[in-house]
Amino acid sequence: MTTASHTPVMLREVIDALKPRDGGVYVDGTFGRGGYTRALLDAAETKVVAIDRDPDAVAAGQQMVFDYKPRLTLLHGPFGAMDVLLAGQHIFHIDGIALDLGVSSPQIDEAERGFSFAADGPLDMRMSKSGPTAADIVNTMHERELADILYTLGDERYSRRIAKSIVEHRATRRLTRTGELADLVRKVVPRSKDGLDPATRTFQALRIYVNDEIGELNRTLKASIALLNPSGRLVVVSFHSLEDRVVKEFMRRHSGLGASVSRHLPANDQAQEEPLFRILTQKPMTPSEAEAKSNPRARSAKLRVAERTETPAKESAR
Ligand SMILES: C[S@@+](CC[C@H](N)C(=O)[O-])C[C@H]1O[C@@H](n2cnc3c(N)ncnc32)[C@H](O)[C@@H]1O
Fold first, then answer.
1. What pLDDT is attached to residue 272?
2. Where do the domains of the chain lie, and which CATH numbers do they carry?
3. Computed from CA positions of residues 116, 120, 125, 128, in that sequence, does the dihedral angle turn out positive or negative?
4. Which ligand 1 atom is nearest residue 52's CA?
5. What does pTM read for this prediction?
6. Best residue for ligand 1 mutational test, from 3, 5, 18, 127 (most atoms within 8 Å of Cβ)
């Protein structure tokens, strides 16, 4: 396990948005190396429940649990099951949720985790270190489905070409290394003018798929409706357009803007509910120039904030 650090993205903006207060209970759904958690604990006499599905992150956080005893609880699990994890602690109402999506620097930097095409490692990509690996996916999935994943989760326009090449390769030998996959993609995808490694989108798509990142996000957004107290804040930092769109649509749908109501839905289903959230960021916030300069990982960050209204959560509203 690496003890390497992670520079928290848009830290000040996230903490300002959460408005931590004495006695408030906050959930950091993506503990990582605890950048947001520590700032939340330092800002006021808060209680923080931090969650991470990566056992390495939870192990690395034990010193912090000790330092802030008894105000920090660190749980191992997926934030998509936040409601269940919190119920296990007899917590049913909270004052804020922070999500800093994606992977941490220690996860990317440790080649053995298999997230990186920059350093060769096993083709793994599992944040939780359990379940099917990226190698399992690329060596077993039907060519068509593989292409669809690369296209929808990676915006990869050469998805079919890549999927075909993977299937041809695996007919003779199983793909097991990140370096192998990256080389294979580089052979069939032309280099773009922006200098982006041609393997970037393929790795992104596989990572999102292996970790069910969109499903996780949808589940936690839904759970936030019942968990957040009135005036409780939902604060999400995302790093690619797919995630940002999911967050934006959720916030709009539940704030009475109704922009995402489909004309294909029956009239009854389109009835406007009382808003469950108030959107506090009409446009997503982005990092300052100084932060983008000093932390390249921050460059694509988008921060959205919504505040829970007084409207009670109803089963039908979720
Ligand atoms: C970008 S890092 C968070 C960094 C953190 N804000 C900090 O300052 O150190 C994302 C972390 O969230 C975790 N993570 C991502 N998706 C998760 C999920 N669905 N459930 C639980 N943890 C998740 C990852 O394992 C990783 O440690």
1. 57
2. 11-106+213-317 (3.40.50.150), 129-210 (1.10.150.170)
3. negative
4. 22
5. 0.94
6. 127
